[in-house]
Design brief:
Layout: E1 3-6, E2 11-15, E3 19-26, E4 31-39, H1 66-70, E5 90-94, E6 104-112, E7 131-139, E8 144-153, E9 158-167, E10 173-186, E11 190-196, E12 204-209, E13 213-219, E14 231-236, E15 246-252, E16 257-263, E17 268-275, E18 282-284, E19 289-291, E20 294-300, H2 303-318, E21 332-334, H3 336-339, H4 345-357, E22 362-365, H5 393-403, E23 407-412, E24 416-417, H6 422-426, E25 446-447, H7 453-469, E26 474-477, H8 499-517, E27 522-525, H9 535-538, E28 543-545, H10 552-563, E29 571-572, E30 575-576, H11 589-596, E31 602-604, H12 612-634, E32 636-641, H13 643-646, E33 649-655, E34 661-668, E35 678-680, E36 690-693, E37 699-701, H14 702-708, E38 710-712, E39 720-728
Parallel strand pairs: 21-22, 21-31, 22-23, 23-26, 26-27, 27-28, 28-29, 30-31
Antiparallel strand pairs: 1-2, 2-3, 3-4, 5-10, 6-7, 7-8, 8-9, 9-19, 9-20, 10-17, 10-18, 11-12, 11-14, 13-16, 14-15, 15-20, 16-17, 24-25, 32-33, 33-34, 34-39, 35-38, 36-37, 36-39
Length: 729
């Protein structure tokens, strides 16, 4: 078991194979302090790190300076209003309006395995794969119990954290903030690594030095968002891909979030992650409990690469579920960029016939198949087949596609409603809105109030009817606008601050119904591209549409940031038409294929209209996918070069678990005069084995390839690429 309690020292020690996490109980009042998190230690007597034997001392020794102690002590889960002036992890308000709360250790439990968090996506494991520590703290005056939960995944070097707040009193308590984790550490010249962006420009890396005061990222859009991603890493200043210390945290949650780092007057860092506090206030009645989402923590002393490896293994093994957890995904073609709203049965079948002959395995029918949907200004919420476009219905279409040897998939946007829809005309109060105020539209649509069970039930009934009407084997779940004008016609005034979180719980409930009732259906989440690409969504769908920007060159930075924390098997990536619909760029068809191979792989184009030379290349790309997907899906990923940093070329590598083969992808973004061959050192190979480059005569030892490197040939032109497949002799 990876968790031990040393009673004499009052120290908890949580061990993964490479890391240790220490928590200590101090003083007669049993304050809970953070002792250490980092490289695994054999020692457990680390109480000295809490500095209780130096000024201002603990209150039992120096009651005169209680506030000074609270404002300097490394708190494991800090509260508000009693003397710690740093950012609180828990902030509550009593019915009288007071905020003061002080937590003290009461008891603990250690057990094998872990519990599910009610209503929320939760990482999972067999009892032999993880162990859990639950520490119960209490504010006796408020009769408020707070359980801090830590689950230790030894093999993946990940510790998950969440919190349960229980009201044991007779009066309501309002929770204004409940972080999933808080961590106090001495500052070690930390830099903050985050992922930021916008629509069609998601998850670009940003690294900056921590300064005094408060800095962080958040989303207040009702989704994890394009703009800021629910992930942050703290890096020592000299950290690289291969060297230096990294602390990573990501939220297993798809709604509003806050992740922040606060550098104090004593040059300590308070690092927190949890539900966003904007528009949040939860009314906790007597005997009620509130559960926070999980925070996923990892530590690496081997640079960013090791953090990446930890998260990839954890997500593959303990987040993704279902039939496709470890399976190759079918190569799909989506009709969106091919037709947009202008299609009928014959047009779809013409695409399917051509695609089937080229080796593509699934046709996905995107937006426009329902209601009177001929543009984006109507019919969301009316999930019945548009008989003008599809007079024979979905069942006929699916059967005809199946006859071609292809699977059939379909697009939904369950969370949305159009003002021009039967649903909205019948139930205008089902849309999120402030009474008396016209709600703002985005993409000509409103957001349904998924905090209401009757709304979720109604949408589910429609979806279920459609899915049982035809042989649907894939669902693309879209969500094309953020939340605004926050108001629910069903929630009482004192509970309006619960709307955004309750909305997210409703989304999770509906997705759980879908995957439970249709376990053979492959679910792919999407939110205007990549606005909800997070581990919360991955709990329900094994892949997520990475970005609406399908241009291969733009995708380099997007997929680099995504792959830094998510496995390649989760990244929805397609070959699109050119000039690209997002940026107008013309990229060679071959290069588009190379970039899409670092994901789930598919096509976003009209195969009946593309140039013949491109069409002829599709069977080759299909063959490459089948040849390399097991390696890409299951292998270890390494970042070698970053076009985001050097603006010239991009390079990544995947190595099989047994190190017997490796695939290197090299993309030259910009050509230039007088260049010599590109130079790159490989990673992850067996140093004492020899590797032959497929298609060539050269064989080199693993240590030569990793430390001396290989030369990439000079290529003519912009946006060109090369695959290098190495096989162990």
């Amino acid at each position: 078991m990876g968790i031990k309690y040393f009673e004499k020292e009052r120290i908890f020690k949580l061990d993964t194979q490479c890391t240790s996490y220490f928590i200590g109980v101090v003083d007669e009042e049993k304050f809970l302090g953070h002792v250490y998190y980092g490289k695994r230690l054999s020692e457990h007597k680390l109480n000295y790190l809490l500095r209780v034997d130096e000024p201002p001392f603990v209150p039992s020794k120096n009651e005169r300076e209680r506030v000074s102690f609270l404002d300097a002590f490394a708190m494991e889960y800090p509260t508000h209003g009693v003397g710690d002036y740093r950012e609180a992890a828990l902030r509550v308000r009593t019915k009288e309006g007071y905020h003061a709360c002080s937590l003290h250790y009461v008891s603990h439990e250690i057990f094998e395995g872990k519990k599910k968090i009610p209503g929320l996506p939760t990482s999972f494991a067999e009892e032999s794969e993880c162990s859990t520590l639950e520490i119960v703290c209490q504010d006796s005056l408020l009769n408020l119990k707070v359980t801090l939960s830590y689950s230790v995944f030894e093999n993946e070097d990940v510790i998950t954290r969440h919190v349960v707040v229980a009201n044991g009193g007779k009066d309501i308590i309002r929770i204004e903030k409940a972080a999933s984790m808080s961590l106090d550490m001495d500052n070690r010249d930390f830099e903050m690594l985050t992922l930021h962006g916008s629509w069609a420009r998601e998850r670009h890396k940003q690294r900056r030095k921590l300064g005094a005061g408060y800095q962080g990222i958040s989303s207040g859009r009702g989704e994890s968002s394009h703009q800021n991603h629910p992930f942050m890493a703290l890096l020592t200043g000299s950290c690289t891909q291969e060297q230096g210390e990294v602390y990573g945290v990501q939220m297993m949650y798809s709604g509003n979030f806050d992740i922040q780092a606060e550098v104090s007057q004593f040059n300590s860092v308070r690092w927190q992650a949890g539900i966003g506090t904007n528009d949040f206030c939860w009314v906790l009645g007597p005997e009620e409990r509130f559960y926070t989402p999980e925070a996923l923590l990892t530590y690496s002393d081997e640079g960013i690469d090791k953090m990446t490896a930890n998260y990839h293994a954890f997500i593959k093994n303990h987040v993704i579920r279902g039939k496709y957890k470890d399976k190759k995904r079918p190569i799909l073609i989506n009709n969106w960029e091919a037709t947009y709203f202008e299609f009928d049965t014959e047009k779809l079948l013409s695409i399917a016939r051509e695609a089937a002959g080229l080796g593509i395995e699934m046709l996905v029918l995107d937006d426009g198949w329902f209601g009177k949907r001929n543009w984006d200004d109507s019919s969301l919420g009316d999930w019945q087949v548009n008989k003008e476009k599809l007079p024979e219905g979905l069942s006929y279409l699916a059967r005809e596609i199946n006859k071609l040897g292809m699977k059939f998939g379909i697009w939904f946007e369950p969370e949305m409603v159009s003002p021009d829809s039967n649903l909205y005309r019948e139930h205008p109060d089902w849309a999120i809105a402030v009474p008396g105020r016209a709600p703002g539209m985005a993409r000509s649509q409103y957001v349904l109030d998924f905090s209401r069970k009757e709304v979720v039930d109604h949408i589910w009934k429609q979806m279920e009817t459609v899915l049982r009407s035809a042989n649907v084997e894939y669902v693309k779940w879209d969500m094309n606008r953020p939340l605004s004008d926050l108001g629910s016609a069903a929630l009482p005034c004192e509970k309006q601050g619960e709307l955004v979180h309750r909305y997210m719980l409703g989304v999770y409930e509906l997705q759980e119904r879908l995957v439970s009732n249709f376990p053979d259906v492959l679910l792919e989440n999407c939110s205007s591209g990549g606005a909800r690409f997070d581990t919360g969504m991955l709990y329900y769908s094994p892949q997520i549409w990475c970005s609406d920007d399908t241009d291969a060159i733009e995708r380099l930075a997007i997929q680099e940031g995504t792959a830094m924390i998510y496995p390649l098997s989760t990244i929805g990536a397609h070959v699109s038409d050119c000039p690209n619909h997002a940026v107008g760029r013309i990229t060679p068809f071959e290069t588009r294929g190379y970039v899409a191979l670092a994901g789930t792989f598919g096509y976003e184009l009209d195969v009946t209209k593309i140039p013949e030379k491109d069409r002829q290349m599709i069977p080759e790309q299909v063959a490459l996918y089948h040849k390399y997907n097991d390696l890409v899906r299951n292998g270890d990923y390494y970042r070698l070069k970053s076009a985001q940093d050097n603006h010239l070329f991009d390079c990544w590598q995947v190595v099989s678990k047994d190190k017997r083969e490796s695939l290197v992808t090299w993309i030259q973004v910009l050509g230039g005069p007088g260049r010599r061959s590109g130079f790159v050192r490989l990673k992850g190979l067996a140093p004492d084995k020899r590797y032959r480059i497929e298609g060539g005569n050269m064989a080199l030892s693993g240590d030569a390839l990793m430390h001396a490197g290989i030369c990439m040939p000079v290529m003519s032109g912009d946006f060109v690429g090369k695959l290098i497949h190495l096989i162990q002799e």
